[in-house]
Amino acid sequence: MWKVLAQLAVVAPFAHALLRFPCSQLVTQRFDPLVTPGIVSPHVHQIIGGNAFNISMDPNVDISKTSTCTTCKFQEDLSNYWTAVLYFKHPNGSFIRVPQMANQFVGSPNGGMTVYYIQPANNQKVTSFKPGFRMIVGNPMIRTKNVPANSAEARSLTFRCWGANFQSDPSYPHPGTGPLDTIALPPKACAGGIRANIFFPSCWDGVNLNPSDHASHMAYPIGDVPRDGLFFMGGSCPSTHPVRMPLLFMETAWDTRQFNNMWPTDGSQPFVLSMGDPTGYGQHADYVFGWQGDALQRAMDTCTDMSGQPDGCKALHTIPDATMNRCTQQVQVNEVVEGKYISALPGCNPVQNGPNDASMPSSCNAISTTGGVGGPAPTVAPPVVNPPPPVTTPSNPVYTPPPTPANPDAPMQTHYGQCGGQGYNGPTVCQSPYTCKAQNQWYSQCT
Ligand SMILES: *[C@@H]1O[C@H](CO)[C@@H](O)[C@H](O)[C@H]1NC(C)=O
Ligand SMILES: *[C@@H]1O[C@H](CO)[C@@H](O)[C@H](O)[C@H]1NC(C)=O
């Protein structure tokens, strides 16, 4: 037994370890304590995580101590994460929020997002974010992106056009890759909804926790994004940002299906992000670190489950979906943002197609104060019209790994050693009598 454990321990660092877990919706409103602390934000965000979230959040206050509940699967994660909300623009000019649905293989969170903390495939050690750490990816004002298609900047924010029942292109299962994942909002109706894929940069300058732009302390690893996306981007960090952090990745699952038969007759796509962006190029997300103590570092050091199943991470504690879903906040801005058709996007957000940057109207009659609401937060999403059929595939996202090229000169792998998987480039042939068996798309083992 010890021998097996010892060998597994040696094997584990080769693996492409990750945590993957759902966080349901905490509240949806015009708050953005990073960009516009203390005032009502220009556009609507959906917020997940700990309930210390507020209109302003002092970086010196440790939210892992002031939050009393979290909408995330791990009890230790009291961080906050937020992104823009998607609206459908009816041909008659009214808008309604697109409901969010539970992502694939996450249980039954109430809307929200799926969060991933991914470690590099090449055995680099990652350093956890620290208390006070905050970052933003993306820019809500832009309406075009003139960057090389394989750059991290291009691939970090994309939208997957799902076929029915979460169907993806089997040749490109990974987020941000292949013809179904576009940098702009999908140009055609997506039978199974749309998933937003958001990768934050993972290289830190090692000094600044929260610079005034909330972004210049972070950078992407050097080089082009490989065929299988940022998920599998080993690479090294630039010398200006030498510290490799977990790759933070988030997915939002939008149930656009009920709108697919209401597209404008001119064929233009009818969805618009809450900042008045019908292109998708202005997609953005914010992160406020709030893990308890060294919980995230411990998880990164010891949780090497290649499928990222929350229950597989013994360093952390999971909470039931119902407990996550009970953690909500009252809306503090007295305006309708969801659940019914509204005549304009909340805030001052005329739809602006670009390609020039969006401009803020000099005045509009949007509410700019909090208060006068009371009562519980409205339920997140209107009921899903056609619930997705039950998923019958195994309980974690398993894809057939592409064949790993055989190298006759390569050494042979020993019992329990890794012998394949995306992002792996070690020995692929097992010593007799063992054979190489795929455990998931990232990991095959000699057994
Ligand atoms: C949010 O901030 C307001 C004051 O700005 C305060 O009254 C309220 O208690 C805070 N809410 C939470 C959940 O901290
Ligand atoms: C547009 O259509 C929706 C759905 O039928 C309706 O609720 C909304 O009031 C309409 N808006 C206008 C301006 O007619």
From TrEMBL:
Keyword NAD attached: no
InterPro entries hit by this protein: CBD, CBD_sf, DUF1996
Biased composition annotated in UniProt, kind: Pro residues: 379-392, 399-408
Keywords linked to the UniProt accession: Signal
Signal sequence interval, chain numbering: 1-17
Chain spans, region Disordered: 375-414
Boundaries of every CBM1 domain copy: 411-447
UniProt-listed GO biological process terms: carbohydrate metabolic process
GO MF entry, a single one: cellulose binding
Assigned GO CC terms: extracellular region
Pfam families: CBM_1 (PF00734), DUF1996 (PF09362)
PANTHER family documented for this protein: DOMAIN PROTEIN, PUTATIVE (AFU_ORTHOLOGUE AFUA_6G11970)-RELATED (PTHR43662:SF3), PTHR43662
Protein name as it appears in the record: CBM1 domain-containing protein
The species this protein was found in: Crepidotus variabilis
Lineage: Eukaryota, Fungi, Dikarya, Basidiomycota, Agaricomycotina
